Amino acid sequence: MERSNPGTVGVDWTFGGSWPYEPKWFESADGQMHYVDVGPADGKPVVLVHGNPTWGYLYRHFIDSLAKAGHRAIVPDHLGFGRSDKPDDAKLYTVPKHAARMTELLESLDLHDATVVCQDWGGPISLWWATRHQERVSGLFILNTITHRPPGPVKLLAPLKLFRAAGIGELMVKGLHMFVRVFLPFAIIKADRFTSDVKAAYLAPHPSWSTRTAILVFPREIPSGPEGPVADMNGDIEEKLKEHFRTKPVRIMWAMKDWGFTPEMLDEVWLATFPDAEVTRIP
Fold it and tell me: What is the Cα–Cα distance from 156 to 200, expressed in whole angstroms?
């Protein structure tokens, strides 16, 4: 049963019919996680994992097509996002914590022959599970993300530097909700696709200061260099990807105008890991 999040009572979670899926729930030690599970129960599972500041709604155009093709589409919301619980506790939203909960959720579903689709922070969070259960994963579909140890100091974009600054980040992200209100629509190239229903879908999960904590933590988790918990986690994932996934199908679809995950990351990092990957570059 869904527990109501502050300020979301009465929300029409279908958003004009664009998200018609029955909610399912996983009870983690840190809070309840929402996911949808659409398609035949015996279909080949496809796990689609979102990043920041979105939720499973990001994959709304994938789900029906996958189900009609006989696949089982599984789309979870990280704790702090979408319809999942949003405890106001920053310690719960570190990347290793997210990865541990995602592992628990996916293990509870006992998946086999799965394809993992991942984007942004969904990359390290889902591939942590995949690289520890490689016998359950048949392939990867990589969207703009990074799961590699930084070779040196990381250069951050100006907005991310502000989000990481104490006080300023809280005001911008938790107070003004700028990550969703300003930067999300700015990142969408075809502005006409950011309809009123889409805008409502991304605003609804985070109606107040206390429900935006997870959004703020992610930019503060970006490694500043090759050392630290997230850098170490990514380094571990990178080595296991090279060890276990070079013989499996890997497809990469990369938005070339992404100002965070640049074309250089595709060419110099991902294609160094998977030189035989099938690549689609989105201009």
Answer: 29
122/143 Cα distance (integer angstroms): 9
CA distance 172 to 189: 23
143-193 residue pLDDT tens: 999 999 999 999 999 999 999 999 999 999 999 999 999 999 888 888 888
Among 41, 37, 88, 81, CA closest to 58: 81
Residues in the chain: 283
Return all residues near 225 (Cβ < 8 A) that are at least 6 apart: 150, 152, 153, 154, 231
C-alpha 218/C-alpha 164 separation (Å) is: 9
The superfamily CATH assigns to domain 24-153+225-282 is Alpha/Beta hydrolase fold, catalytic domain (3.40.50.1820)
Q: Quote the CA–CA distance of 50 and 79 in Å, as a whole number.
A: 12
Task: For residues 45 and 202, give the distance between their C-alpha atoms in angstroms, rounded to a whole number.
Answer: 26
